[in-house]
Amino acid sequence: SQQGEEDPQALSIQEGENATMNCSYKTSINNLQWYRQNSGRGLVHLILIRSNEREKHSGRLRVTLDTSKKSSSLLITASRAADTASYFCAIQGAQKLVFGQGTRLTINP
Amino acid sequence: ETGVTQTPRHLVMGMTNKKSLKCEQHLGHNAMYWYKQSAKKPLELMFVYNFKEQTENNSVPSRFSPECPNSSHLFLHLHTLQPEDSALYLCASSQDPPSGGGRSTDTQYFGPGTRLTVL
After folding, report:
1. Strand boundaries in B1-119, DSSP class E
2. Burial A67-79 (b: 16+ CB within 10 A, else e)
3. Contact (Cβ atoms closer than 8 angstroms) between residue B64 and residue B46
4. B74 touches chain A (CB under 8 A)
5. For residue range A29-43, what is the model confidence (pLDDT) as tens digits?
6. Contact indicator for A19, A106 with CB cutoff of 8 Å
7. What distance in Å separates the CA atoms of residue B48 and residue B98, rounded to the nearest whole number?
8. Residue range A3-22: average pLDDT?
9. B115–A40: do the CB atoms touch at under 8 Å?
10. Which residues of A touch B111 (CB under 8 A)?
11. How confident is the model at residue A2 (pLDDT cuts 50, 70, 90)?
């Protein structure tokens, strides 16, 4: 299966702490993307990292990709209450984008 | 706002009803998608349209019928649904090369979804 698997399934931290979510996959990829979804809403694209890249930053977000381990991580620094959402990794291989089941992140004030 | 709108936002229908979901994208993209999101399941790709042509149908039951009259509009016609079809239906769009073409970034822009409840 090309689907990415996120870990953990749920994460609860205090505001101001850093949050790390992981994604593992089994096939070769062209790129890997992270999306955020607020409850009952559509997904919002956060960041795309290509297979030949190892790290990308966007504001408080940092994404790493290790193609030898077939894994990626999303780090959110200095978390805020507004970061509470579900986060999905999506694998872009030879076929269309395939989404994982997501990590539910809760930021406690 | 992502540039993708969906109507209605909420829909309650009986099993014998016929209804349609509408999606419109204002991004000039050439590919549009329907996804189904059920509780505790990964996002399920239902249909893909590229340049108005359907390029994927992931074994979706015939009670779901897509229509793509142009690159900006996508419909999902619903009839004789089952309670297990209750879910959040998401539309997305992207800028892709023609089917069979080279690689694309395939970043997708999602609408807010239609929450469907089948009684």
Report:
1. 4-7, 10-13, 18-25, 31-37, 44-50, 53-57, 64-70, 73-79, 87-94, 109-110, 114-118
2. eeebbbbbebeeb
3. yes
4. no
5. 999 999 999 988 899
6. no
7. 12
8. 93
9. yes
10. 42
11. low
